[in-house]
Design goal:
The protein is of the alpha/beta class. Helices cover about 50% and strands about 10% of the residues. The protein contains 23 helices and 18 strands. Strand 1, helix 2 and strand 2 form a beta-alpha-beta unit. The longest helix is centred in the C-terminal third of the chain and has 19 residues.
């Protein structure tokens, strides 16, 4: 397995991504560099057999091909590290093959060989991207020497390519990236649910990738050749949402001059993804339950119904159980869409994934590629990992996109994070990691401490202000470790005036305070 020594040093921030994974999952990454995979292209079976034997005897993995057409398919299907090809081939000749492969795979080394060549042919194939030229009949030692030189020259590219494959195998599922055990379990659940036709309900905050999950389920199902139809329910008023879902007949309402199929019918043979499902009205929910039961959909204003074979995936950023309890969602509808629940982890709870997301985004962004942006500085990565990301991966990508635009060099040295109060983020993190009882205790402790500070530690005035007995206040102060002397000492230090005429200090602000 390659190391990161060929990647920018800015990526080696504290611990590498693969080290994080090894610690998280108790695994260690492989250290052996894979055997190079060579492709031999020649119409002559004897030449193919001779080269196959030569390479295999010297420890290489070999694939043989009789034509350029077959070789192009091999390059798409296999992970090829080196190509040696004859110039004279049936169909597409070797010159065209070298030109095409160099355009599509510019880092792939290609050696050309022929028994009928002149200097001009050699110059032409070298200009088209070949790294060397071998004459037939060839000397085995010369061929091996040329092959080893080509592989050595492209070793860095092969290491990076292998690293990317390894990262994808360990951290990536479709377009989703994670090295946390929780998200790995999400990936496993997607793989289990995808082959079935069960309804799936995806729970997650905005920006966590709910549509990516829905698309991954569709792509790994038997419906992958069918349509994947998406509708964001929150973007439509109730009547328009019903029209979009069920479609309508001609003259079903004013302005309906032509009949239109709804999203449910358009998703026939495929998957229908309903995002922001909490925005759907009770009446529309009831109609959708009928569709799920009967597998038939009736357009608005039409008399007949149509059979539909559609898989339903829904998503929400809210607690749908609470909506059922409040009477805003039908329990029957909820139970039908919640056959397989999937919970997505917010980015703030998996900060170890941030380097992976950053690296992948920079590698795929066209502007970052054109500006040859290789990474972010340690300072920037530290800021990105400390920020709580209320908008999750989507917000991180927006920040990176702006940073890419402004970056003057190959390393991003500055990022502009969204403005927000630290207190709001602290509260969000506390709520996310605490039970309701713990959160209420913390709030009560903070409230009593503020009251004691405002009233200079006066127990009687504080109890009266909090509308509780002195004994109750004293007991709570013992539980929370609040010492009245400390508040009195603070009041003396700040030279706070005592309350006048028996009025609480809360109504008479101390000097130095607004």
């Amino acid at each position: 397995m390659p190391t990161l020594h060929n990647l920018p040093s800015t990526w080696r921030h504290r611990k590498s991504e693969e080290q994080c994974l090894a610690e998280t999952r108790g695994e260690s990454r492989p250290t052996d560099f894979p055997i190079p995979n060579l492709l031999v292209v020649d119409a002559d079976a004897a030449i193919r057999e001779q080269l196959e034997h030569l390479y295999a005897h010297n420890g290489y993995s070999v694939i043989i091909s009789p034509s350029a057409e077959a070789s192009l398919r091999r390059l798409e299907e296999e992970d090829i590290d080196f190509v040696i090809t004859d110039i004279v081939l049936p169909g597409i000749d070797g010159v065209q093959f070298i030109s095409h492969s160099h355009r599509k795979y510019p880092e792939l080394p290609v050696v050309a060989m022929t028994a009928h060549a002149d200097i001009q042919t050699a110059v032409d194939v070298l200009k088209l991207g070949a790294c060397d030229f071998v004459m037939k009949p060839f000397d085995g030692a010369a061929v091996l020497g040329s092959t080893r030189a080509a592989l050595e020259n492209t070793k860095g590219n092969r290491e990076i390519r292998q690293l990317r494959r390894w990262l994808k195998d360990h951290f990536q599922f479709n377009e989703m990236l994670s090295q946390t055990p929780q998200m790995r379990r999400v990936f496993e659940l997607i793989q289990l649910a995808a082959p079935t036709d069960m309804s799936v309900l995806i729970h997650g905050e905005p920006g966590t990738g709910k549509e990516l999950v829905a698309n991954a389920i569709h792509q790994h199902s038997g419906r992958y050749t069918g349509p994947f139809v998406t509708i964001h329910c929150g973007g439509y008023p109730e009547d328009l949402l019903e029209r979009e879902l069920f479609g309508y007949g001609r003259n079903a309402f004013a302005g309906a001059h032509e009949a239109k199929l709804g999203k449910i019918a358009l998703a026939h043979g495929g998957t229908l993804f309903l995002d922001q499902i909490e925005s759907m009205s009770l009446a529309t929910q009831a109609k959708l339950v009928c569709v799920l039961e009967d597998r038939r959909v009736q357009r608005l204003g039409a008399c007949d119904s149509t059979y539909v074979d559609t898989r339903l995936i829904a998503a929400s950023s809210m607690s749908l159980k609470e909506l059922v309890f409040e009477g805003k969602m039908q329990s029957d509808f909820y139970s039908r869409i919640n056959t397989v629940p999937i919970y997505l982890i917010p980015l703030r709870e998996r900060p170890a994934d941030i380097p992976l997301v950053v690296q992948n985004f920079l590698r795929q962004h066209p502007v970052a590629e054109s500006k040859k942006i290789a990474g972010v500085s340690d300072k920037v990565l530290g800021r990105l990992m400390e920020y709580p990301w209320p908008g999750n991966v989507r917000e991180l990508q927006n920040v990176l996109e702006y940073a890419i635009l402004l970056a003057p060099g190959r390393i991003i040295e500055e990022v502009k994070l969204p403005e927000a109060t630290t207190d709001s983020y602290r509260d969000k993190r506390q709520i996310a990691s605490s039970s309701l009882r713990q959160w209420l205790r913390e709030k009560e402790k903070s409230y009593l401490a503020q009251k004691l500070e405002d009233l200079n530690g006066n127990i009687g005035l504080t109890a009266r202000s909090c509308r509780m007995g002195v004994r109750t206040l004293s007991r709570k102060m013992r539980i929370y470790g609040l010492d009245k002397k400390l508040f009195k000492e603070n009041a003396v230090t700040e030279k706070a005036p005592r309350p006048n005429h028996g009025q609480p200090a809360l109504l008479s602000p101390r000097h130095g305070r607004a």
